[in-house]
Design goal:
- 42% of the residues lie in helices and 16% in strands.
- It has 344 residues and is of the alpha/beta class.
- The chain has a domain of 166 residues: P-loop containing nucleotide triphosphate hydrolases (Rossmann fold), CATH 3.40.50.
- It has a 5-stranded parallel sheet with strand order 3-6-9-1-10.
- α2 crosses α10, α9 packs across α10 and α11 packs antiparallel against α13.
- The N terminus is likely disordered.
- InterPro entries: AAA+_ATPase, ATPase_AAA-3, CbbQ/NirQ/NorQ/GpvN, ChlI/MoxR_AAA_lid, P-loop_NTPase.
């Protein structure tokens, strides 16, 4: 392929003896099953969720890229509902954990119970032992409880009393937090934020979307009709689709583009802390999954640019001066993208 990223131009003016143009793009891999599954999940979620297409696409990308997601938004924008509905489209074990200030690590990971009959300790798994784990209001638990997630989110297992207990695949953590309310909350440490593939800002619906929500509620479709959503993918299906995504083609110059984009956050004057190599890996894995969702077997710069804000916004820290000026992390990411030469 002479140019992976350029569109085929018009050939009507070519002389008769010119070489014939390349055939229209045909993927080297068959993504019909992947796209059909993604469309089915979108339809199922669309039975209840109005709008939020970008949110749904990013969640599908995270599933295919085997990454965790942090959802941030004010109360009432369907963060928890979307996560619960998404879990219902997957035929895998699901659990929900409501974080509170008095929660202990054992409430998440599990605990060992002494059995007098056998004179031995028996490990009783906690709610983290599921394929899709919804952690509601993750910033309400103290640091001790949040630190319990470090090992399991990165290494996909926990260690209890010297014994390692692996998590079953797939394993996906969907966490929510409210950016406005600060009373009774604890700021997530950078090490934990870095373990989330994406941080998705869930905004308000448009006026038209809110009207549709009101019409549906007025017509009797209010509440949270989880039973309206059907299962689409099994655990085996997810593993197979992830394996297909890992085989996506990535040009060497695109790897350099990702490295330069992330590297520029470490030298930017507006940033106190830049992104680590884990952000580069997140961009690469996310772009592979997104390109597959878009029906291509290769990654383009546009895939990387689309995902950059979701990958980087929680991994960079603004300087106090820029923060006081009202600069947002997304503004800096956009500036870096605009200044960087795009490979073609």
């Amino acid at each position: 392929m002479e140019n992976d990223f350029a569109d085929l131009g018009s050939t009507s003016s070519l002389p008769p003896d010119s070489p014939q143009p390349a055939a229209p793009f045909s993927p080297r891999a068959d993504f019909s099953r992947l796209q059909a599954s993604a469309d089915a999940i979108r339809r199922e979620l669309g039975k209840v969720i109005v709008g939020q297409q970008a949110l749904i696409d990013l969640l599908l990308t995270a599933i295919l890229a085997d990454g965790h997601v942090l959802l941030e938004g004010v109360p009432g924008v369907a963060k928890t509902l979307t996560a619960k509905l998404l879990a219902r489209t997957l035929d895998v074990p699901f659990s929900r954990i409501q974080f509170t200030p008095d929660m202990m690590p054992s409430d998440v990971l599990g605990t060992s119970i002494f059995r007098p009959n056998s004179a031995e300790f028996e490990f009783r798994p906690g709610p983290i032992f599921a394929s899709v784990v919804l952690i509601d209001e993750i910033n309400r638990a103290p640091a001790k409880t949040q630190s319990a997630l470090f090992e399991v989110m990165e290494e996909r297992h926990i260690t209890q009393d010297g014994t390692t207990y692996p998590m079953q695949e797939p394993f996906l953590v969907l966490a929510t937090q409210n950016p406005i309310e600060q009373e009774g909350t604890y700021r997530l440490p950078e090490a934990q934020l870095d373990r989330f593939l994406f941080k998705i800002n869930v905004g308000y619906p448009t006026t038209a979307e809110e009207v549709a929500i009101l019409q549906g509620h007025h017509a009797g479709f209010g509440g949270t009709p989880l039973e309206a959503v059907s299962t689409v993918l099994s655990a085996a299906d997810i593993r197979a689709l992830r394996q297909q995504v890992r085989q996506q083609h990535v040009e060497p110059k695109l790897l350099e583009y990702i490295a330069q984009l992330v590297g520029n956050t470490r030298a930017h004057k507006a940033l106190y802390l830049g992104a680590s190599p884990r952000a580069s890996l997140a961009l690469l894995n996310g772009a592979k999954a997104l390109s597959a969702l878009r029906g291509r077997d290769f990654v383009t710069p546009e895939d990387v640019q689309f995902l950059a804000p979701a990958v980087l916004r929680h991994r960079i820290l603004l300087t106090p001066e820029r923060e006081m000026e009202g600069t947002a992390p997304d503004d800096v990411v956009k500036q870096i993208i605009q200044q960087l030469e795009v490979p073609r």
